[in-house]
Design brief:
The protein has 624 residues and is α/β, with parallel strands linked by helices. It is built from 21 helices and 24 strands. The radius of gyration is 26 Å and the shape is globular.
């Protein structure tokens, strides 16, 4: 998705007329669906003048392609500047990461993390090495854009720090970053001629922007999923490029863990991140690296579904004992000695419970017990994904128990989007539409994400089945409005618990034995619930919204009485009604129901299809 596109001659004219930043801003609003900040607008005015100077070379053809602010699907990352053309008939694209820096201070003992006074950040910020950033962005394009692969388009990254004067022993050029700089060369204020030569090394003939058009309209390859790459990750292979805030959080977590264990102290790290921001990928990378450094480190999650899928994927590669050792539930630490473990990496921390055990009668609080058990604990959290009354994980509680145990507290946030085709706008639109929080996203038009509302669940099912034929990565899910009976029927996909008679639609809940729902070959014949899909991802997801969420009098309303009696996620709501009143109970239930559908509707990396039993809600979603 390109914000600005054209050819060199048009770009230079726009710069000379003083309208380049205005053109970028107007297109940015149209494409990204939000207004750029004033510093970001000013950075375009500044940087494009420098790029105009770089391109003022008669040997760089006037008809080479130019693109500004290219959004890389399926991420939320944007490339500052791209050029396209030919070299001896070879299609080449040069991508340039533009930086406003005038100096950079290396953060000690962390790979490629710097503190800079950024032009757009309004103060000192932690950032990635420019060459690392350019290199990972180029790798993302190579990995995910099918046109780049089929057309054999060569993608060449570099970074241009046009305000920066390099010293002879500059930290950015240190041998520690030789790998990055060789992959994506660095150019400073005095390197205009060198940058021109770099561009001409790959582009000698213009292409009228055709190569950039192919990239922008190229089919996006299926994204890697964590469950498919887990085995190779545990063997030490790099399967995912950590980008932007992911890389920064990873390096800080690694440093805090090493320092905490070495000093025999206690620290806690809280990492906030919405759907698809890479929390689980980051958690697994840390699990692998910390174990490689001979630390006792486990991956912890309350939700059994991811652990079941991981175990199935790793079966035959690792022993069951090793798998169960690495991937643990959240309820096993209530009797653990203080600081017995080096590190605990807690994913989906919002799902943690107060009590543990089969009958929820053991221990005091899982957050407290995890912090007690480990010298260093990392909590990955998104409080908008709490989906049951028992979900008590919150940043405030983590802070409370950390302070009680004398632990230091570090807080970070992930902001890069890897799901929903990298569209932060889709998640913001969804939050606004479901009235979870007010955002500036009032409509979904223009988002690079396949969102459809169906009048007939059978039609939605057929579409999901077609998508699933590609790679078995599409599923139907539903709100918990249909009973989940016990007995032999739970192992029979021909027994259909979910029924919508007026549409002649029937489907079974996911089976309780046999294949894991997320990866099973026959799971397309079943519907998953929140507990079988949270923490996992698919290419496409079809969501059946039941009677527990409707649209009335211009607002989203929820009704917990329409939930199935077998639904334990709201078990205890009647007691809350009796003790605290109906208004309090309704507010709590409203949050859980909306969070449930928000979570279900963000499981798809490429698309979300929806059917609503409430016709007014169906029309509202269609027109939103």
């Amino acid at each position: 998705m390109l914000v600005y596109e054209g050819i060199k001659s048009g770009f230079i004219e726009d710069v000379d007329l003083g309208i380049i930043a205005d053109k970028i801003r107007n297109k940015y609003i149209e494409v990204i669906k939000k207004r750029p900040s004033a510093p970001e607008f000013n950075s375009w005015k500044n940087s494009m003048q420098y790029m105009r100077g770089v391109l003022s070379d008669n040997d760089i053809p006037n008809n080479i392609g130019i693109a500004i602010e290219y959004n890389i699907p399926p991420t939320g990352c944007r490339i500052d500047f791209m050029m396209s053309g030919y070299k001896q008939s070879k299609s080449n694209v040069v991508i340039i990461e533009l930086k406003q820096w005038d100096k950079a201070t290396e953060v000690g003992e962390m790979d490629g993390i710097y503190k800079v006074n950024t032009f757009t950040g309004g103060g000192m910020r932690d950032v990635n090495h420019p060459s690392y950033q350019a290199m990972t962005y180029a790798n993302l394009i190579r990995d995910y854009n099918e046109s780049v692969q089929l057309e054999d388009i060569n993608v060449v990254p570099c970074a241009y720090l046009h305000n920066y004067y390099f010293d002879n022993d500059d930290t950015l050029l240190s041998n520690n970053y030789k790998e990055y700089v060789e992959a994506a060369p660095l150019f400073g204020h005095n390197d205009v001629l060198k940058l021109r030569d770099f561009i001409k090394r790959y582009i000698e003939d213009g292409d009228e922007g055709n190569i950039l058009y192919e990239i922008d309209h190229g089919r996006i390859r299926p994204s890697k999923m964590l469950q498919d790459s887990l085995s190779q990750m545990l063997k030490g292979n790099k399967e995912f490029y950590m980008i932007d805030s992911q890389k920064i959080v990873y390096e800080y977590a690694l440093r805090y863990a090493i320092d905490t264990v070495a000093s025999n102290s206690k620290n806690v790290m809280i990492v906030r991140g919405g759907p698809g921001t890479g929390k689980s990928v980051l958690a697994i990378n840390l699990l692998v690296e910390l174990n490689n450094r001979n630390m006792t480190c486990f991956y912890v999650t309350k939700n059994a579904a991811p652990r079941t899928v991981y175990a199935a994927k790793l079966r035959g590669e690792f022993t069951a004992t090793h798998i169960n050792h690495l991937f643990q539930g959240s309820g096993g630490f209530y009797e653990e000695e203080t600081n017995k473990l080096d590190c605990l990496v807690v994913d989906e921390a919002h799902r943690l419970n107060e009590k543990s055990g089969l009958f929820q009668n053991r221990g005091e609080n899982q957050i407290k017990e995890i912090i007690n058990a480990a010298k260093f604990s990392i909590f990955f959290i998104d409080e908008n994904q709490k989906v049951t009354l028992k979900d008590i994980g919150s940043e405030d509680l983590i802070r409370k128990f950390a302070q009680e145990q004398g632990a230091g507290i570090y807080t970070y946030e992930l902001d890069s989007q890897f799901r929903c085709n990298g569209s932060d706008g889709y998640v913001a639109w969804l939050d606004n539409t479901l009235e979870i929080r007010d955002t500036a996203n009032f409509d979904i038009e223009g988002f690079d994400y396949d969102f459809k509302v169906f009048d007939d669940p059978n039609e939605m099912r057929r579409e999901i089945e077609e998508k699933n034929k590609i790679n078995n990565k599409s599923r139907i899910v539903a709100g918990y409005c249909w009973e989940w009976p016990t007995g032999n029927t739970r192992n029979d996909s021909n027994y259909h618990e979910i029924k919508i008679p007026e549409k002649k639609f029937e489907i079974s809940w996911n089976l309780e034995s046999g294949e894991a729902f997320a990866i099973g070959e026959n799971s397309i014949n079943e519907a998953g619930c929140i507990h079988t899909v949270q923490g996992l991802e698919f290419d496409y997801v079809g969501v059946i919204i039941g009677d527990d969420m409707r649209y009335e009098d211009g607002h989203i309303v929820t009704d917990y009485t329409k939930r199935a009696r077998s639904d334990n996620s709201l078990k205890g709501i009647n007691r809350i009604t009796n003790e605290q009143g109906e208004e309090v109970a309704n507010k709590i239930a409203d949050t859980i129901i909306k969070n449930t559908y928000r979570t279900l509707m963000t499981r798809g990396m490429k698309g979300c299809y929806v059917y609503c039993t409430d016709k007014e809600l169906q029309e509202y979603l269609k027109n939103s």
